[in-house]
Specification:
- 4 copies of one chain form a homotetramer.
- The first copy, chain A, is an alpha/beta fold and 376 residues long.
- Helix content of chain A is 51%, strand content 9%.
- Chain A has 16 helices and 8 strands.
- In chain A, strands 3-2-1-8 form a 4-stranded parallel β-sheet. In chain A, strands 4-5-6-7 form a 4-stranded parallel β-sheet.
- In chain A, helix 1 packs across helix 2.
- The radius of gyration of chain A is 21 Å and the shape is globular.
- About 16% of the residues of chain A have low confidence.
- Chains B and C meet through helix 6, helix 7, helix 10 and helix 11 of B and helix 6, helix 7, helix 10, helix 11 and helix 16 of C.
Amino acid sequence: MRIPEGAIVVMLTPFDNKGKINESQVRKLVSFLIEKNVDGIFPVSSSGEYVHMDMAERKFLIDIVIDEARSRVDIIPGTGATCYHQSIELANYAKDKGCSAIVLHGPYFFKNTDEVVEGHIRKVAESVDIPIFVYNIPFFANEVTPQIVERLAYLSNIVGIKDSSGNMVNVMNLLEMTKKVKPDFKVLVGVEEIMLPALLMGARGCMTATAGILPEFMVGIWNAYLNGNINLAYNLQFAILPLIRKMKSFNFPQGFKEALSVRGIEMGPPKMNYSREALLKLADLRERLRLEIAGLLERYFSQALINCRVQEKDSKFNYPQFGSKLLEKKYPDCTLCGNCASRDSVNKEMSSSGAQKEIIERIVENTLRRIIDEIR
Amino acid sequence: MRIPEGAIVVMLTPFDNKGKINESQVRKLVSFLIEKNVDGIFPVSSSGEYVHMDMAERKFLIDIVIDEARSRVDIIPGTGATCYHQSIELANYAKDKGCSAIVLHGPYFFKNTDEVVEGHIRKVAESVDIPIFVYNIPFFANEVTPQIVERLAYLSNIVGIKDSSGNMVNVMNLLEMTKKVKPDFKVLVGVEEIMLPALLMGARGCMTATAGILPEFMVGIWNAYLNGNINLAYNLQFAILPLIRKMKSFNFPQGFKEALSVRGIEMGPPKMNYSREALLKLADLRERLRLEIAGLLERYFSQALINCRVQEKDSKFNYPQFGSKLLEKKYPDCTLCGNCASRDSVNKEMSSSGAQKEIIERIVENTLRRIIDEIR
Amino acid sequence: MRIPEGAIVVMLTPFDNKGKINESQVRKLVSFLIEKNVDGIFPVSSSGEYVHMDMAERKFLIDIVIDEARSRVDIIPGTGATCYHQSIELANYAKDKGCSAIVLHGPYFFKNTDEVVEGHIRKVAESVDIPIFVYNIPFFANEVTPQIVERLAYLSNIVGIKDSSGNMVNVMNLLEMTKKVKPDFKVLVGVEEIMLPALLMGARGCMTATAGILPEFMVGIWNAYLNGNINLAYNLQFAILPLIRKMKSFNFPQGFKEALSVRGIEMGPPKMNYSREALLKLADLRERLRLEIAGLLERYFSQALINCRVQEKDSKFNYPQFGSKLLEKKYPDCTLCGNCASRDSVNKEMSSSGAQKEIIERIVENTLRRIIDEIR
Amino acid sequence: MRIPEGAIVVMLTPFDNKGKINESQVRKLVSFLIEKNVDGIFPVSSSGEYVHMDMAERKFLIDIVIDEARSRVDIIPGTGATCYHQSIELANYAKDKGCSAIVLHGPYFFKNTDEVVEGHIRKVAESVDIPIFVYNIPFFANEVTPQIVERLAYLSNIVGIKDSSGNMVNVMNLLEMTKKVKPDFKVLVGVEEIMLPALLMGARGCMTATAGILPEFMVGIWNAYLNGNINLAYNLQFAILPLIRKMKSFNFPQGFKEALSVRGIEMGPPKMNYSREALLKLADLRERLRLEIAGLLERYFSQALINCRVQEKDSKFNYPQFGSKLLEKKYPDCTLCGNCASRDSVNKEMSSSGAQKEIIERIVENTLRRIIDEIR
């Protein structure tokens, strides 16, 4: 049994104007992600707002994703719930539909004791016949501590953990504690900002929303890591941090949904009732995300480069000082495939990258002023 | 339009062995509560584990309660959800079925900003035509601050607040801030331990699970307060504190469910997966709850007194020193209806109440030892 | 041994321009408070920023307060610390100087276990010979739970608890649990907004900063309560809530210090480094506090009334509906001594106070009152 | 100006039986650390319980450390306080005594706003003439967010940040945000478990208590990283995780103090008042720490190897699968200096290392059983 790993997408859910799942956009998104070579898709996710869907909708979403994926990629749906009955029902459905594994976080709403959190996951694991990634997301659901994970790892179908605490002490302890129980236990990181440090410590990939918004980057980090090109992985990892801060600056997960809409997926109206003022801020944010995403893709994956797979190997282990002159110089010399036809034009773009920030800032400012004028 | 007030029951939900709503036990519970003269019933509540039920089950539960109640008591179901669509659907259903009002807490799961929490409730209020009690339960759902409540109180169908924070500063500010907006805005307290102090400050009742477990006491406090018999209300309020601590000592709301089972309602197996060890603790707790509830009812509402409505008026405002000799003496002289036939036997019970604690403790100890022996 | 109770002042500390204790202003403050008939003074308090003072300064502050008080009022200094050595040293000093008792919160800075918190207080209690009020202030120091307090109450010199959690469930449980251990154990409330409900449940007073800023009100509530005039106590309690919200709207305890400066005590420059913008906000806040305090004193304790002790007794237990016509009408008819000669001059003062802001606020108030009247 | 970096020790403080600083043990500790080639010493630290010391003691501790160090290593004392006056006084003292820099966390005790936290650090920075490491330790003091750090980095003497949040998202954002402001801004990690991932992302070292307890390992990680031997750094990093979990299993920082006592430093009695039961647990913990530390040193730094400086360079970037057979095999081939005389004996030790864990576990078990027997 091959357990999924790599750059796995926490899939956001496109809705239609009535708030129902938008099948055609879901299909478009799945196709987009597969084209971008992601390693797996995780529908019915927290960031995908599964809590707003009932059981029938959750099953329907799995149906669409499975159907569109046509076995080209692992599908690993979420089965989170407030009690185990619902999780078991959905896990069995996922198994029947041919999903590769499921993701299961601790129960939510009530504040349960550690013992009950463990009992919840244990009950599901013992009731279903499908590999399970335990999921620690203390912001939304009862925390699943490394100690609980260690004990659960003794169950044969508990195959990994998605840790979204952001706490690297957790990740380190999980790597150390679970390896003793099960050598091939997979620690996946659920926070996009720390994919590379987690990989370097032994994690086997990520499950993040950003993997669906900027698959080029998250797949890029994973492949660069696999190829030993840590230099490239490092550049890609740090390049996306400002974008992530922007996406997180709005009421979660709306900032992420806006960013995905920039990639061409119609996400539908927000699920929450935002004030007129908040919606204006959101429009502004979308514009800023558009510019930032365009800039990132242009810089790191320009048209000519976009279909290149990362191939280069950098045998020297020589971390660049981030943001240093060295890095700026180094970039055009050593990144990406290196045998690209449009190399020179890329280099030209690069050489002017000093001015890029100012240009973007000017565009943003102008756009903002125009919008404000329109509002008046 | 009469808005519910008084001793309103946060109704726990009896389930059958398959985890489905147990209709016959729900009917039994509703009848029991109406017999005990509660002022309202709040089904589809957090303590009633509504989060484990889907929309169809929530509607079915409303159906049963409405049908069994036969307009003898106000029914005020909960409509909590992660987004407004579900809340609106259930609120409209409640309206159609003849419910008096609904209860609505902030959205849960995601950590939304104050603005979004307010927008959520505002959207529901503007979309439905039924009185709404806003519900602040920061332990489970996004906090609804007094400032948000103040702004929402301007909407015509926002008629009150259930505050379950336990924070009396909140209750005081809510009383002060909402009175300026809407003189008849009702502040209800959602925490059983503080019903009396809240009433004395201007709250108009409670919505608590304990009102369904010990309706005699919560109805008793409310009626004593209405009749100006603060002395009696005081005794009743303090008498139940140790029981509440016991119910809260187990993973919520299982301790409350055990207590209700002691009153004769079959609650079904727990919704969470407890270990064998935890289930033994639970059995022990149930035994202790049984003794404590029996003792409380015997002391304050013995067979002969049980149907008496509180009538006495104590014109002297003279708070007893809780637990003092004075209180012990005072109790048989002034509480309850006073013209009860079985007075003497009650007094006799009372006079031996000094020894009561030891007797109960001995019974508990013996029970425990027996159980431990059985386990071995 | 008489244990302090009633309206006890958590004393803020006046500093000079160099950040040292301002002896003359401390003396002025102590005199002011004694004149206002407060029941005790608690120097070296958290709100009094004792954490900014070293041991010598803390002792010096006790010296001044004791000297100025000349045994006219109980002095109960704080002895909080990160470890017991310091607490013991200061407690012994307090004992030697003739203090009536000390206040002791849990250790702070480190997050200690419940066991260590209990051990800390136990060690101090067993090492000193002076009555101790345990102090629960979970916002600043390790929480002292009701269960810990219950166990500590068995020590002979643990005589009471100051609970500043705001959590009324705590207050109720403390009243119930400690009474069984020690009938005269004193529960004092540390949060100004809930003095009256706590008193009505059996608390024996408050320790609050507001008792030093508006001693008329806090002493007034206590005396009204003692005299059975719950009506008056109720009005006084609710009257101060908006002021408290204002004082809390700025970085603690600076809002409280500004309010005390309005009463004529020079508090010195803030201990924290506020930006120019923040200082402007602070100046604005001080102006608003000045108006609000003036209005409160004028309305409830006008010049002619200011020396009147609360005398009225209301034998009817008849809570007013806060904010109702009844209350508004009742006020001039029944509060305080009622035979005030300078009534008209007070009214004249009102109309002639010239600040622009006050005028605006009056207009707003009047408009609001008119609207409220119309709604009625 | 050279700014400290590398493996910097958060120095624990040895006390004597009267609770005062134990000068001779401090000197012994400083010598020990310098012999072990640490890159800096941070006295007056939180883990060193500076909060229990008054200003004179803090200065005295700096005196001893500076005197004993004789400029052989950077001394970077902490200057944390509740308000800026104390921080400035101590920072100036540190400057006069020749310290290389100071460490400054946010104010503690009161919950200040972000603006006030920033103002506090800004005031100190503008008042003193010594390099400052900002220190984020949200468990004990007001959080210093990456946004605050970014703004502070514009001040010339704010040279770095010690982040002890454990949150790697913070570390990543700090690296990215501060580099734009000041290319040589130093991000140091305050949590021992994540030194290597932080280094690999661009951090310039650590400030941790473990660097003083197991300097061999923390210096080892830093040197291995500098030499490009990530393999070795990786092994050292993961090897210490179980020990750290043990040290953290007792009320902080007592577990760390016990571990340091195992290295031969007399730490004195605990500063907190532990129950007899807790002290027995502590004795047990010390025994377990002794075995674990002995095992770690034996395995990775046996007698013959202990003075070897890490020299090897591993040109292949080839992360081992932690805990895999490969790793076990790889270890004796490639770690440490490689030209060591006692190589074979080391290898022999290593080859039996599979059984080592069982042996230690057996010893521990036997010891525990003996202690338990003694207690009975």
